[in-house]
Amino acid sequence: LSDYIYLYKDFWVTSYVLTGIISFQKNFQAKDTDIILVTFPKSGTTWLKALVYSMVNRKIFSLDNTPLNATNVHDLVPFLESNIYRNGQNPGLSGIPSPRVFATHVPYPSLPESIKSTTCRIVYLCRNPFDNFISLWHFLMRARPKDLEPLSLEYCFDKFCTGACGFGPFWGHFLGFWNESLKNPNKVLFLMYEDMKMENKLQMKRLADFLGYPFSENEEKEGVIEEISKFCSIESMRDLQPNNSGNKVLERFDVASFFRKGEVGDWMNHLTPSMADRLKKVVEEKLGGSGLNLKLFG
Ligand code: A3P
């Protein structure tokens, strides 16, 4: 975009979100029943928000009268680093009924202490960095002020590979939550975008079990999982009125710009073989030996 980027603690932060991150770290008090969705930007946050919100509220709202039909998903499941605290108070968070569902892009070591010390659950959604990068590039291009030169793919790619982009480096982000999910599997569930695409039902069951909202046999027979899955698909979500009516996220991104292709492997349409080779080497160097096996080629 047109913003400065800072190295804050051990990750890069874009200027407009830095105050919000510090405010979140300082003020946020997690409750035991909270659900915190964490992602590196552009790895399917919006999708995960819709799925988890629909899943945990399924006994309260039917899909015909879910608030998702009236309010955009980013307002219902807010980013905790949105700059919303004033003097330690956050009126926007006070009236939310439990289980509260929130999202953040903040890496594990920098999460507020109360998220770590309470029994609240963390769901991490990871996407292969190739598609993640392409998605990020499109998103930044779309949000960039029209009077500035377009962002070149090569420039952005170089920054992404060196880690210097918002909440980067991606490998540190992935590893923080991956290692924590191995140490504490009841606290952190590690999901992959590609698995969610290929075997959505299975992953939704995993998610529901982890969150303590398992699908009953009856619900399975009645096709409840498929209904939620279809409702939260990109085709259905992008057509919901609040998601395409000009609403903004963080006062700058169109809600509609969070729904693009939603596919696995789009990077093949954009990256040259040498670019792909470079990123593959970064992944091998930084994540090799961690046990984290990314679905790199769909
Ligand atoms: P693409 O740009 O590759 O299409 P985030 O929500 O973290 O900002 O990530 C946005 C990415 O998730 C975009 O990827 C977007 O199209 C995709 N996405 C949004 N909603 C989705 C859904 N319901 N199912 C699958 N992918 C979705």
TrEMBL record:
Gene Ontology MF terms in the entry: sulfotransferase activity
Keyword Transferase assigned: yes
The entry's keywords: Transferase
Superkingdom of origin: Eukaryota
Keyword Metal-binding set for record: no
Annotated EC: 2.8.2.-
InterPro entries noted in UniProt: P-loop_NTPase, Sulfotransferase_dom
Main enzyme class: transferase
Family: Belongs to the sulfotransferase 1 family.
Name recorded for this polypeptide: Sulfotransferase
